[in-house]
Amino acid sequence: MTTYKELHGTNIEVRSSDPSNPVEGQVWYNSTTGALKGVSISATGSWATGGSLNTATQNSAGAGDSNTAALAISGTTAASPGGAAKTESYDGTSWTEVADVNTARRYLGGSGTQTLALAFGGGNPGGLAVTESWNGSAWTEVNDLNTARAAIAGDGTQTSTLAVGGPGAAGPTESWNGTSWTELAALNTGRSRIGVAAADNTSALAFGGQPPNTSATESWNGTSWTEVNDLNTARYDPGQSGVATSALAFGGGDGTSVFGVTEEWNGTSWTETTNLSTSRSHTDGTGSQTSALCFGGETPPTTAATEEWNGAGSIITKTFTTS
Question: Does residue 162 share a domain with residue 117?
Answer without folding.
Answer: yes
